[in-house]
Amino acid sequence: MTTLLEFATDNVLTSLLVKERAKYLGRNRSDKHDTLNKRDDLFDLTPRKMLSRMMPPRKTWVHPSNRTRKDNDSIKQKLSRRKLAEKAILLTIKRDRKCQTENGTTYSYLNELSRFMDRIRERLNADTIQFDTPQLKPIYKDVDDENLEVTCRPLSVYSQLEDKIIIALTSRYLTKYFDRYLHENILSYRKVRTVGDKKHYVTDFNDGIQKIKAFLWAHYDEPIYAFDCDIKKFYDTIPHQVVKACISRHLDQSQLSDQGKAQVQKVIDAYLNSYNFYTNAKVKSEQDDSVFSKVRNRMKDNEGNYKYKLKWVKEIEALSVEDQLDLGVSQGGALSLLIANIVLNDVDKVITSTSDDNRLFIRYCDDMILLHTDYNECCRLKDLYIQSLQEHGLYFHGFEHVTAPNADGEDPRKHFWNIKSHEPFLWDDGDDNANRYIGFLGYEIRRNGRIRLRKSNISRIAEKFRRQEYALRRYRKNHTTEEFFKHQNEALDKIMDSVDYYKGLDLPMFKHGSQFNYFEQLKKKVQSKLRIKSEILILATKNKTI
Question: Do the beta carbons of residue 438 and residue 445 sit within 8 Å?
Answer without folding.
Answer: yes
